[in-house]
Design a protein that fits this description.
The complex is a heterodimer of chains A (504) and B (945). With 504 residues, chain A is α+β, with helices and mostly antiparallel strands. Chain A has helices at 18-27, 65-69, 95-99, 121-124, 131-135, 152-159, 182-185, 233-257, 264-289, 298-301, 308-331, 335-361, 374-396, 402-425, 430-440, 445-467, 472-498; strands spanning 4-9, 36-45, 48-57, 75-77, 83-85, 106-107, 114-115, 141-145, 162-163, 175-178, 190-191, 219-223. The longest helix of chain A is centred in the C-terminal third of the chain and has 27 residues, at 335-361. Classes of the chains: A alpha+beta (504), B alpha/beta (945). The interface between A and B is large, with 79 and 93 residues.
Chain lengths: 504, 945
C-alpha cells in the first residue's frame, strides 16, 4: 500500500516562495488564494533576532475532517495517501474549510468550488513529483511513500525530530516538519503586528489571534496569506430560523401532550405554517450560502452519509415532511392524526435543532464549536425560540395554556443562560479560550452582550413578571421578541468567534 | 463517492522530470480537469530565465492542443540550476501572458514624455533610427550613439555589434550595481568576481544575501545549503536581518561601511595565531612588492611579511573592531578561529552590499579576498576561484576589430580606474555640455527609476538638444520608456536568443536562451524565418534587431558595417541566428561538437534540445598550470619572473605596436616563474595575487594600495545618532522580485508589493515614530515619505528599505504595469520636482480575470529619486547608502510623496566629483591597459589627447 506524504525541511528552507509560484503555475491558481504558501515569523531581539519560515499546505490527513464533512464526497481519499478533490462534485458549502484545522482549503474564484493542494495528483498519476518538490532550490520538500521504510521520507521521519501542525486535532497529518520553530507551526503563538507584514498588505482576512495575548505570543508574523472566515450571516441566521422552525413544533407537541390537539388554529395550523415557513427559509439560507447553489441537489443525488451536512439535510427534509403532514391534519382538523404525529414530529424537531451540534463537531478546525454543551444549547435555543413565537402568537390569537408556553420560555432562556455561564467558566483548549475571548471581549463582544441581555436576562425578567400576572400577554410577547433578537445576536457572535482563531 | 482514479505509480519512486527522450510529446493529465483524466500533450522546449543574472535553465511546456505555453519548469540538464528555480522562474509565464505588455513598436506623438504614441511598423522604425545613426557615423559623430544596458542576457553579442559599428558606445548599469566589489577583486587578481565552491566548503562567509539574491541566487542557494548540510558554517555580514542572515550560523550586523575593519581584524587574528597558509602566500602573493613599497627599510624576506602586516593592521584588534563594527569581540575571535581551523576550505562572496553602499566600499571585497589568500582558499576544493575559471565566453562568428574610439561621456577622465562606465553621471555630463547623445538606446534598463537622481534623468531625457532620439528596447513599460521616442517591444525569457555563462559553481557551462515558440514551430514542421513571427504581437528580440538595424545603418556597405552582419553561407544576405549560433556552437565551445555527434545531432540542434552544456574538465587551482615551451616561445622574462610577450600591453614601446583586441583582462603576459617553474598564474601585471597594487599606487592612490579601511561617507561615528540622523540602506533584494523587471509578474507582486522602512523599535521610540506611522526621510537633495515597519531585524541607527517597489505611472490606464505601479503626478517648478501619488494599485479590467482580483494596494515609494549621485572616486561605484534624517511625517505628507531639488543634485555631483583624482595616468594613458573594460577599444584609444 502506498501512503504518500510530505516532509518539509525547515532547516534548509530559505523562504524563497518558489513553491508558492510553481504551484500557482501548475494549477493556474487565481490571485487571492493559495494551495501552498510560506509563512514568516520573527523572533528574538537585536542582535539575537531571526526569521523562521514554514511552508503551509494541506496535511493529507489520514483521518481527514474535510473528507468526513464533505456532503458530496467531492473531497476523498485517493487510496495512495493523497486527499484529493473533485471540482465537479463540490457544491461550495465551505464546511471543509471549517473542518480543516490547517487553513488548507479555499474557494476557487473561477469554479466557485473548494480546492487545495492535491499533491499534484495528475502528476503523480504519470510518475512525476509535485511541482513544488521539483522547483525547490534547496530540496527542502520531500515526498515519498511513508509505508516504505526504505523511502527517503520514511528515513527522514524516523531519524529526525519532526513535528506536525495541530497534533491535538487527531487528524494524523502526513505533512511533517523538520527543524520548524514551534511558534511558526502554532498560529496562536504569533500575531501580525499593528504595523503589518514585511512586504505585503495586511487585510482583515489575514490570520492573527483575535485578541491581544502578549503572554502567549512569542513571535511576530512577518508574512502569511489571507484566509477569510468561510461562514457568515447566512449560517448564523440559519441557526435562528432553524431554531424557530424546530422550536415551534416542539412547543406545539407539548400542547398536544397537554391535550390540545384539537385546537385547530393554535395547534393544528399556525405552528406548522410558522415551522414550515422558517424551515423553508432555513433551506433558502443554506442554499444561498452555497458557492454553487445550482448544485444543491448533489446532496441528495450524490450524498456522503458520513457528513452531518447530508444527514442534516435529510433530517430537515423529514422534519419538513412531518410538519406538512401536521399541517394537513390541522387543516382537516384531524386531532387524532396530530396526536399520532406529535411524538415523531417532536423527535425530528429535536433532531433538526440539534444536528448542527454534530455538524459543528465535524468542524475540527473550530474548537469553540466542539463543546459538548452545544447540543443542549441548541435544544434550549429551539425551545426558547418556539415558546417565543407562540408567546408572540398569543397576542393575535388564543394560544392554549399560555402559562405553559411562558414556563417553557422561561425554561429555555434559563437553560440557555446556565449553558452560557458554564461554557464561559469552563476552560478549554487554547483555541477555545481565544474564541471565547473574541466573543466576550473581542470583536464580537457587542453581539455577545446583546445575546445575553436580550436573549436571557430581559426575557427571564419579563416572563417572570408575566407569570406573576403583570400584563401577561404583552410582557410574554415582549419577552419572546427579546429572546429572538438575543438569539440572533448570540448565534452570530458564536459563529463568527468560532472562526476567528487563526489556523495557519 | 468518486472512485479513486487509476494510478500507474505506486511502488516506484517519482521522477522530477519527464525523460528528455520523451520531450517532444509528454502526456500528463490536465490539472484543472483532474480527477477526470483529460490527457494533455506537451512539447518541452528548454530556454533560459531572463529575470535575474543567474540565467537558470527553464523548460517551456507547450500545450500541443492550444499551441500555447502552459507553464515553465526547471531544466534538469542545466548544470547550474539543475532543474530547480526560484519563484521568478515559473513566474516567467506571467510575463509572457501579461495583459499589460507592449505588443507593437510605438513612436512618440507630441512632446517627449507627453505620453501619446502611435503604432509604427518595424521597418519604419528601423529605417528612421538606422538613417539617423548612419548620418551620425558619416558626420564623424560616433560618440553620440550610446547603448545603455541593464540586463545584458548575452555575453558577447552586443559587444560584437558595437565593435562592428566602430563605436565606444557601451554604457552599462554596473556602476550602480557591482563595480565596488569588482574593483576590489580586480585589484587582487585581475578577475573581477569570486566563484565560491560552496558545496565543498567548511566555512561560508557572505557579505551579501546569497540565499535570496546576489549573483547567483538559486544556483548559489542550492550549493550553500548543500555545504551547510555537510557541516559548513555560514557567516553572514549584513546590518539588516536578511533571510540569509536568518539561516546563517552567524549573523554579524556590522555597522555599514565597517566591514573591512571586521575582515582585517580576522586577518590579523589569523596571522597572530599562525593559522594561515604560508606556502600559498609565499608562492602566489606579490609580498616582495608589498615589502619593497610599504616597508622600505625592511629586508624583503618572506619571514618579514607577517610582522609587517601585523604592524600595518596593528589598530585592528578585536576590541577596536568590536567598537567600530558594533559586533562582540568574542564573536570576531570565534569566527577567526573557525576560519583558521579550515584552511583551504573558505568560500567567500560579496557582490553589491557593502561594496555598493559605501565610499571606499571596494575595500570590502579586497579585504574579504584577503581571507581567501591568507587561508590558501584560492582555487581549491571548497575554496573560492576567480570567476574566469568557471565562466566561458564563446567567440562569435565573423571577426570584428576593436573600436579605435574612446567615449568620455562614459569613460570620464576624472575616473581613470572606474571599473565600469560612469553611467549615473550622464545627466550631469549632458547638463555641463560635455557632449550630447544623438541616439540613445536603453535596453531592458530604467535609469529614470533605478538610477539615483531620477529627476535629473527626466530633465536630460526631456531636453531634445541633449538627447536627440531615445529608443527604449524593453519587454514592458517603464518610467524611462515613457520618455522615449521609440518604444520597441523585446521578448522576455522564452522569446529571445542569448548565450550566457556564469560562475555559479566549480565548472564551466553555457546556457542557451531560445524563443520557445519559434522552436516549437520548427518542431511541428512549420518553421518561421524570424523570431518576430513566433512571438506574441510584434514582439521581437534584440539579436535579430541588431542585424536588421545594422543593415539599415549601412544599406550599401560603404561604412564597412554591413559586412559584419552578412551570412557566411549566403554572401550579401543578412546572417540568420541559426547560422550565427550554429557557427558559434560548432567552432567555439570545447567538447560540444563531440557531445552532439555522440547523439547524432548538430551542435545547434543539441543546444536547442538541451538548452545548456557543461564544458568538460576540472577547474580547480588553474593558476598552478605549468606553461609549455610553445607558450613561452617568444616571450621575454622580466626580473620579476613574469613572461611577457612583445607587442602586448605588458611589453611595448609604443601603443601602436599593440594590434587588434587586447585581452579582456591582463596585459597579455603568459605567466610567471614560481619557485623555478613557469606557471600561468593570474591576469595581473605581476601574474600573482597583488597584496600591493602598483596600479593603485601609480594611478594616484598609493595610500590604498594594500587592503585597508576607507571611512565611509555614512560612517556612524560621523552621524548625529543622538539626533535624527540615521543610515539608510536603500538597496536590498527580496527573493521574489528583480529590480524593475518583475512588475509584470502578478504572482510575484501578489506575494510582495510593499517595502516599508525597516526601523528598530528603539529608534522608533527615540525618533517619535508611531507604530505604522509615516516617516519623512530627508536626504541631501530632497525627501520622501514612507510607512515605518518596526523590526528587531535591523541594527539600531540603520534604517532600510527594499529597492523593488515604488513604481509609478502618470496615466491611469497606461504607461506602466498596473499589477505593480501606482498612479502619480509629476510636477516641477524650475528645479524643484515632486512626485505625488494619486492612487495605489487597484483591480483593473483586462483579458485576465485575475486583474479584477488584485487585492493589494501598496505600490511603495520611489526613494531613488531623492538620492544624489555619489560616485566612489576610485572604483566609480555609486555609493548607495544615504545619510538621512528621520522625522515623523509632517501635516500634508502622504505615503509616496517625493520632493527633490535638482540644483542640490548638481551641487552634490560637484562635491563628489571633487573627490576624484583625474587621469591621465602613467604614460599619458586614460586607464591601465591591463584592467578589464567592457568593449575594450584598441590600445591607441587609451592615449589621452
Amino acid at each position: 500500500m502506498t501512503r504518500l506524504g510530505f516532509l518539509i525541511d525547515q532547516d534548509t528552507c530559505i523562504g524563497c516562495h518558489a513553491c508558492t509560484v510553481a504551484c500557482k503555475a501548475e494549477h493556474e491558481v487565481p490571485l487571492g488564494v493559495n494551495r501552498t504558501w510560506v509563512k514568516y515569523i520573527e523572533t528574538g531581539t537585536f542582535p539575537n533576532a531571526t526569521r523562521q519560515f514554514s511552508v503551509m499546505r494541506c496535511n493529507h490527513c489520514e483521518d481527514a475532517p474535510c473528507v468526513e464533512i464533505c456532503p458530496t464526497s467531492a473531497l476523498f481519499h485517493s487510496g495512495n495517501g493523497v486527499v484529493d478533490f473533485d471540482t465537479s462534485a463540490c457544491i461550495g458549502c465551505k464546511s471543509c474549510m471549517n473542518a480543516c484545522p490547517y487553513d488548507a482549503l479555499y474557494i476557487d474564484p473561477d469554479s466557485l468550488t473548494a480546492q487545495k493542494c492535491n499533491f499534484c495528483a495528475h502528476r503523480i498519476d504519470v510518475g512525476l513529483e509535485p511541482s513544488c518538490v521539483v522547483v525547490c532550490p534547496t530540496h527542502s520538500i520531500w515526498t515519498g511513500d511513508l509505508d516504505d521504510p526504505a523511502s527517503a521520507i520514511s528515513r527522514m521521519v524516523a531519524r529526525n525530530d519532526v513535528a506536525v501542525r495541530a497534533p491535538e486535532q487527531g487528524t494524523r497529518p502526513k505533512l511533517f516538519y523538520k527543524g520548524a520553530d514551534q511558534a511558526s507551526l502554532d498560529p496562536t503563538r504569533t500575531a501580525i503586528a499593528p504595523d503589518g507584514m514585511i512586504w505585503a498588505d495586511t487585510t482583515p482576512a489575514h490570520p492573527t489571534p483575535p485578541v491581544p495575548d502578549p503572554e502567549h505570543q512569542v513571535a511576530r508574523t512577518a508574512y502569511t496569506t489571507a484566509h477569510p472566515a468561510p461562514w457568515g450571516w447566512r449560517v448564523s441566521s440559519y441557526l435562528v430560523t432553524k431554531a424557530i422552525g424546530a422550536g415551534v413544533m416542539l412547543v406545539a407537541a407539548l400542547l398536544v401532550l397537554l391535550g390540545h390537539a384539537g385546537q385547530q388554529a393554535a395547534v393544528g395550523v399556525v405552528p406548522p405554517v410558522v415551522a414550515g415557513a422558517f424551515t423553508a427559509l432555513t433551506g433558502v439560507l443554506l442554499v444561498a450560502d452555497l458557492k454553487r447553489p445550482d448544485r444543491f441537489h448533489y446532496i441528495l443525488t450524490r450524498p456522503h452519509w458520513g457528513s452531518w451536512l447530508t444527514r442534516g439535510a435529510a433530517v430537515l427534509a423529514a422534519f419538513a415532511a412531518l410538519t406538512a403532514a401536521w399541517f394537513v391534519a390541522g387543516l382537516v382538523d384531524a386531532a387524532g392524526a396530530i396526536e399520532v404525529l406529535a411524538a415523531p414530529t417532536a423527535l425530528l424537531a429535536a433532531a433538526t435543532a440539534g444536528y448542527t451540534a454534530y455538524l459543528f463537531a465535524q468542524c475540527e478546525g473550530r474548537d469553540l464549536w466542539q463543546s459538548p454543551l452545544l447540543l443542549p444549547m441548541l435544544l434550549a435555543q429551539a425551545v426558547t425560540a418556539g415558546a417565543a413565537v407562540l408567546a408572540l402568537a398569543d397576542v393575535a390569537m388564543s394560544v392554549p395554556e399560555p402559562d405553559a408556553v411562558r414556563w417553557t420560555l422561561l425554561s429555555g432562556v434559563a437553560a440557555t443562560g446556565v449553558l452560557i455561564s458554564v461554557e464561559h467558566a469552563a476552560h478549554g483548549t487554547r483555541h477555545v479560550e481565544l474564541a471565547m475571548a473574541a466573543m466576550t471581549r473581542g470583536p464580537f463582544a457587542a453581539r455577545f452582550r446583546l445575546g445575553v441581555l436580550a436573549g436571557v436576562l430581559v426575557p427571564a425578567v419579563l416572563v417572570i413578571l408575566a407569570l406573576a400576572g403583570v400584563v401577561s400577554t404583552a410582557l410574554a410577547a415582549l419577552a419572546g421578541a427579546a429572546a429572538l433578537v438575543g438569539l440572533a445576536a448570540y448565534e452570530d457572535a458564536f459563529v463568527r468567534a468560532g472562526q476567528s482563531v487563526p489556523l495557519s | 463517492m468518486t472512485d479513486p482514479p487509476a494510478r500507474s505509480v505506486p511502488g516506484g519512486a517519482l521522477d522530477a522530470y519527464p525523460d528528455p527522450s520523451t520531450w517532444d510529446d509528454v502526456v500528463v493529465p490536465d490539472a484543472r480537469a483532474w480527477p477526470r483524466r483529460d490527457e494533455r500533450h506537451y512539447a518541452l522546449v528548454p530556454t533560459t530565465c531572463f529575470n535575474c543574472e543567474a540565467n537558470c535553465g527553464l523548460v517551456a511546456w507547450i500545450d500541443k492542443g492550444s499551441g500555447e505555453i502552459a507553464k515553465l519548469e526547471g531544466n534538469p540538464m542545466h548544470p547550474a540550476s539543475r532543474g530547480r528555480n526560484c519563484a521568478k522562474g515559473p513566474a516567467t509565464l506571467n510575463q509572457i501572458r501579461d495583459t499589460e505588455r507592449i505588443l507593437h513598436p510605438l513612436r512618440r506623438v507630441g512632446r517627449r514624455g507627453e505620453g501619446r504614441w502611435e503604432r509604427v511598423s518595424w521597418d519604419e522604425a528601423l529605417t528612421d533610427i538606422g538613417a539617423r545613426i548612419g548620418r551620425a557615423f558619416r558626420e564623424g559623430r560616433h560618440d553620440e550613439v550610446m547603448y545603455h544596458v541593464g540586463r545584458p542576457g548575452d555575453d558577447s553579442y552586443v559587444e560584437r555589434v558595437l565593435h562592428a559599428w566602430g563605436v565606444d558606445a557601451h554604457n552599462s548599469h554596473t556602476n550602480i550595481c557591482s563595480s565596488g566589489a569588482r574593483f576590489g577583486y580586480a585589484a587582487w587578481m585581475g578577475f573581477d568576481r569570486p566563484s565560491a565552491d560552496y558545496a565543498n566548503a567548511r566555512v561560508i562567509f557572505l557579505i551579501s544575501s546569497h540565499l535570496e539574491a546576489g549573483h547567483y541566487f538559486n544556483p548559489h542557494a542550492q550549493r550553500i545549503m548543500e555545504g551547510r548540510e555537510r557541516g559548513a558554517k555560514v557567516i553572514c555580514v549584513d546590518p539588516r536581518l536578511s533571510n540569509t542572515g536568518s539561516v546563517a550560523d552567524w549573523w554579524l550586523p556590522a555597522w555599514p561601511g565597517t566591514e573591512p575593519v571586521l575582515l582585517l581584524a580576522i586577518a590579523r587574528l589569523l596571522l597572530l595565531a599562525g593559522t594561515w597558509d604560508r606556502a600559498f602566500v609565499r608562492r602566489w602573493v606579490n609580498w616582495d612588492t608589498y615589502l619593497r613599497h610599504a616597508r622600505p627599510g625592511v629586508d624583503p624576506t618572506f619571514d618579514a611579511l607577517a610582522p609587517a602586516l601585523l604592524d600595518e593592521w596593528a589598530e585592528h584588534t578585536p576590541e577596536r573592531a568590536a567598537e567600530l563594527c558594533g559586533i562582540d569581540a568574542d564573536a570576531i575571535r570565534q569566527v577567526a578561529e573557525l576560519i583558521g581551523a579550515n584552511l583551504g576550505r573558505l568560500a567567500t562572496h560579496t557582490w553589491r552590499a557593502a561594496g555598493a553602499g559605501n565610499l571606499g566600499g571596494w575595500q570590502t571585497a579586497r579585504c574579504l579576498w584577503l581571507l581567501n589568500v591568507l587561508t590558501g582558499s584560492v582555487g581549491t576544493v571548497g575554496g573560492t576561484s576567480p570567476n574566469g575559471w568557471n565562466k566561458f565566453i564563446p567567440v562569435p562568428p565573423r571577426h570584428t576589430p576593436p573600436q579605435a574610439r574612446w567615449n568620455e561621456m562614459t569613460w570620464a577622465p576624472e575616473y581613470p580606474l572606474a571599473h565600469h562606465e560612469m553611467s549615473m553621471l550622464l545627466p550631469h555630463f549632458l547638463r555641463e555640455g560635455r557632449g550630447r547623445v544623438d541616439t540613445y538606446f536603453t535596453r531592458v534598463y530604467n535609469p529614470v527609476w533605478t538610477n539615483p537622481d531620477g529627476f535629473s534623468w527626466i530633465e536630460a531625457l526631456t531636453d531634445e538638444d541633449k538627447v536627440g532620439c531615445h529608443v527604449a528596447l524593453t519587454p514592458t513599460w517603464s518610467e524611462t520608456a515613457w520618455f522615449a521616442d521609440y518604444v520597441l517591444p523585446m521578448g522576455v525569457g522564452a522569446e529571445r536568443h542569448d548565450v550566457a555563462s556564469y560562475e555559479t559553481h566549480s565548472g564551466r557551462w553555457i546556457g542557451f536562451r531560445q524563443p520557445v515558440m519559434r522552436r516549437y514551430r520548427e518542431l511541428t514542421g512549420d518553421p518561421v524565418a524570424s523570431t518576430l513571427d513566433a512571438n506574441p504581437g510584434e514582439v521581437w528580440e534584440e539579436n535579430e534587431l541588431w542585424i536588421a538595424l545594422s543593415w539599415k545603418i549601412d544599406p550599401d556597405g560603404d561604412l564597412g558595417i554591413r559586412q559584419h552582419f552578412e551570412s557566411l553561407e549566403r554572401p550579401g544576405e543578412p546572417m540568420g541566428l541559426d547560422e550565427y549560433y550554429g557557427h558559434l556552437f560548432t567552432h567555439s565551445i570545447p567538447g560540444l561538437p563531440e557531445a552532439a555527434e555522440a547523439q547524432g545531432l548538430s551542435p545547434l540542434e543539441y543546444m536547442r534540445r538541451r538548452g545548456a552544456f557543461a564544458i568538460p574538465g576540472d577547474q580547480y587551482e588553474l593558476h598552478e598550470r605549468e606553461l609549455g615551451e610553445d607558450e613561452l616561445a617568444g616571450t621575454v622574462r622580466g626580473d620579476d619572473g613574469v613572461h611577457r610577450t612583445p607587442g602586448t600591453a605588458g611589453l611595448h614601446e609604443r601603443l601602436e605596436e599593440i594590434e587588434g583586441h587586447m585581452p579582456f583582462i591582463g596585459d597579455g603576459s603568459v605567466g610567471v616563474d614560481v619557485e623555478g617553474t613557469a606557471r600561468i598564474g593570474f591576469p595581473t601585471p605581476s601574474r600573482k595575487l597583488e597584496l600591493f597594487s602598483e596600479t593603485l599606487a601609480e594611478w594616484g592612490w598609493p595610500e590604498h594600495a594594500t587592503p585597508g579601511w576607507i571611512r565611509s561617507h555614512v560612517h556612524w561615528q560621523d552621524l548625529d545618532l543622538d539626533g535624527a540622523e540615521r543610515i539608510l540602506v536603500p538597496t536590498f533584494r527580496i527573493p521574489t522580485l528583480i529590480h524593475t523587471r518583475s512588475g509584470n509578474a502578478k504572482w510575484l507582486n501578489e506575494i510582495s508589493h510593499g517595502h516599508p522602512l525597516w526601523l528598530h523599535p528603539g529608534d522608533a521610540e527615540r525618533l517619535g515614530i508611531a507604530v505604522g506611522g509615516l516617516v519623512r526621510v530627508t536626504t541631501r537633495i530632497g525627501h520622501f515619505v514612507i510607512r515605518a515597519w518596526r523590526t528587531e531585524g535591523i541594527r539600531p541607527g540603520v534604517v532600510a528599505c527594499s529597492h523593488h517597489m515604488g513604481r509609478w505611472r502618470l496615466e491611469a490606464d497606461r504607461g506602466n504595469e498596473r499589477w505593480s505601479s501606482g498612479v502619480a503626478g509629476l510636477g516641477h517648478d524650475g528645479h524643484r520636482w515632486s512626485l505625488t501619488p494619486k492612487q495605489g494599485v487597484r483591480p483593473f479590467a483586462s483579458d485576465d480575470p485575475d486583474s479584477q482580483r488584485v487585492w493589494w494596494t501598496d505600490a511603495g515609494v520611489h526613494q531613488n529619486l531623492t538620492f544624489p549621485v555619489q560616485p566612489d572616486p576610485i572604483s566609480g561605484m555609486h555609493c548607495w547608502l544615504q545619510r538621512v534624517t528621520i522625522t515623523p511625517a509632517e501635516p500634508g505628507d502622504s505615503h509616496g510623496d517625493v520632493h527633490v531639488d535638482t540644483e542640490r543634485s548638481a551641487e552634490a555631483y560637484h562635491e563628489w566629483l571633487a573627490l576624484a583624482r583625474p587621469g591621465p595616468g602613467p604614460g599619458g594613458l586614460r586607464r591601465p591597459l591591463w584592467l578589464a573594460r567592457p568593449v575594450k577599444p584598441r590600445a591607441t584609444a587609451y592615449e589621452s589627447r
